[in-house]
């Protein structure tokens, strides 16, 4: 078995070198034999960072893969792999699409590592990852980003390319990693869309696998996976638009089989632990992570355990936008967004000992009233927390009762940047702010008409920022006494190396819920 190296494989970071120059490709294969098949065409990833280890992911690609083959991995303190900290061998099997979920353990807390795979005479590129700080360690700073909604046929991934140039400890991915839709001809005045989905609507395991493989072929997405560990949850499009528990938008009878296929493909393509492997159509995603004494990160699953949306359009499931007068079921106190078990788990997961609690979930939590004039009754979209106001109130009341000073709710899904004050009574501007919300816009997915958001703003005084015409991500710097957020927006979605600009900056001071606007630097 021989490995050839890329021509300039010095000891210098190839990824850094690639990122430093806009004219070189963003992502450079660390080493592979030119005359062999590329076995690592989907890149690699790491996730679920803990003080003693993390998950290392890849999926073998290329023709003539044996049904069962060994993949070895190594993780080192240095990028030249002279000081190996852990290594192992995994079986990549056809039943799991030759995906690998290696669990590195016994590592030092709070430090960076480098990792790579080899299989069938080929070696992967090098990824960078890190462990979380020890639970009792003082932590000066955590730098992380939130991202969601990377619809392939709505843009290239300049947002990921920009994020890969930041020095982030962690990515929180909050849903819509793929979109299940089939190829659509979304030609515009400027011509046909530069990217289209391969295949039709995803329903089966091979179809979902193909979709993940298409998304994961993108070099900028691969580069960001190779830069830092990710903590990941899902939203609807990993399965089906607007799905809710056992019910799909199309009310299809065989939805459990589709859920099982999509959950399997999801697990296969994410840096998830072996223990997270789905059982039939169920996959346990919600989880707690601690970042030293600084923060607890809680991920939620907002899809799998929820009650179906209220008052759907006739003959179908899924979302609707309607007045509370036309749908009294909105206010049914029994309806759940997280399911009873997850709701109770969340109530026990808040951590009063750490200064910050970050709730990584998939959608906008603040009330968004879409009424167009004050004479109308309130109008809400039924798919988000607005469709489950009693459940939202239980969550926020729980926070208020625990007197947690610094809960920050992070979200995605709505393809717009929102910064909000979360309140027990959104209809009373004087109601105390319980927590701060940053709902990040999409990486690419098209958003709402900005004029509609602007018209709704006066009816939503707790929403301090709302921009559906921005796409990109939010970048955060967290310290014990302060959280800073930077909203970074891609100038041209179809340019892979588009400029990314800072649209807004906010701060949250410890002990004072609510975001404070900062000047643009
Ligand atoms: Fe989305
Ligand atoms: Ca969504």
From TrEMBL:
Q: Which domain of life is it from?
A: Bacteria
Q: Which InterPro entries match?
A: Metallo-depent_PP-like, PhoD-like_MPP, PhoD-like_sf, PhoD_N, Phospholipid_Metab_Enz
Segments forming domain PhoD-like phosphatase metallophosphatase:
144-487
Q: Where is the Phospholipase D N-terminal domain?
A: 42-131
- Cross-referenced SUPFAM superfamilies, in alphabetical order? Metallo-dependent phosphatases
Pfam family of the protein (one): PhoD
Protein name (Swiss-Prot/TrEMBL): Alkaline phosphatase D family protein
Q: Which organism was this protein described from?
A: Roseateles oligotrophus
């Amino acid at each position: 078995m021989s490995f050839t190296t890329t021509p300039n494989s010095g000891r210098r970071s190839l990824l850094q070198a690639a990122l430093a120059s806009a004219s070189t490709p963003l992502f450079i294969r660390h080493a592979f034999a030119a005359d062999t098949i590329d076995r690592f065409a989907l890149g690699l990833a790491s996730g679920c960072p803990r003080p003693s280890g993390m998950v290392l992911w890849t999926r073998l690609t290329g023709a003539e893969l044996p049904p069962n083959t060994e993949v070895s991995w190594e993780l080192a303190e240095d990028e030249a792999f002279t000081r190996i900290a852990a290594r192992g061998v995994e079986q990549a099997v056809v039943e799991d699409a030759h995906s690998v979920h290696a669990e590195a353990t016994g590592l030092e807390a709070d430090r960076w590592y480098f990792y790579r795979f080899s299989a069938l005479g080929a070696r992967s590129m090098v990824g960078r990852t890190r462990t979380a700080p020890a639970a009792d360690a003082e932590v000066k700073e955590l730098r992380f980003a939130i991202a969601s909604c990377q619809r392939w046929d709505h843009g290239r991934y300049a947002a990921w390319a920009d994020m890969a140039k930041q020095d982030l400890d962690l990515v929180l991915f909050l849903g819509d990693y793929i979109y299940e839709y089939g190829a659509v001809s979304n030609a515009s005045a400027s011509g046909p869309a530069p990217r289209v989905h391969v295949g039709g609507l995803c329903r089966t395991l091979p179809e979902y696998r193909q979709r993940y493989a298409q998304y994961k072929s993108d070099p900028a997405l691969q580069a960001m996976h190779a830069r830092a560990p990710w903590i990941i949850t899902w939203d609807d499009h990993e399965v089906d638009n607007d799905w809710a528990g056992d019910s799909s938008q199309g009310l299809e009878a065989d939805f459990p089989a589709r859920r099982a296929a999509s959950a399997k493909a999801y697990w296969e393509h994410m840096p998830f632990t072996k223990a997270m492997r789905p059982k039939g159509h169920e996959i346990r995603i919600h989880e707690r992570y601690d970042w030293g004494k600084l923060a607890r990160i809680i991920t939620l699953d907002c899809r799998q355990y929820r009650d179906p949306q209220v008052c759907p359009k006739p003959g179908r499931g899924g979302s609707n936008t309607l007045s509370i007068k036309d749908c009294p079921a909105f206010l049914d106190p029994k309806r759940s967004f997280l399911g009873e078990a997850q709701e109770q788990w969340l109530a026990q997961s808040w951590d009063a000992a750490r200064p910050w609690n970050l709730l990584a979930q998939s959608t906008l939590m603040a009330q968004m009233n879409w009424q167009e004039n004050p004479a109308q009754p309130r109008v809400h979209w039924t798919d988000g927390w607005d469709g489950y106001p009693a459940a939202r109130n239980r969550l926020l009341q729980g926070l208020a009762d625990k007197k947690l000073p610094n809960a920050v709710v992070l979200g995605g899904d709505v393809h717009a940047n929102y910064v909000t004050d979360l309140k027990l009574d959104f209809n009373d501007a004087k109601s105390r702010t319980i927590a701060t919300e940053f709902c990040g816009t999409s990486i690419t997915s098209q958003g709402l008409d900005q004029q509609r958001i602007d018209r709704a703003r006066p009816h939503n005084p707790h929403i301090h920022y709302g921009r559906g015409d921005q796409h990109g991500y939010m970048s955060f710097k967290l310290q014990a006494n302060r959280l800073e957020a930077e909203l970074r927006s891609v100038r041209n979605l179809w340019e892979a190396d588009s400029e990314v600009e800072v649209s807004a900056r906010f701060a949250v001071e410890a002990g004072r819920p609510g975001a404070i606007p900062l000047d643009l630097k």
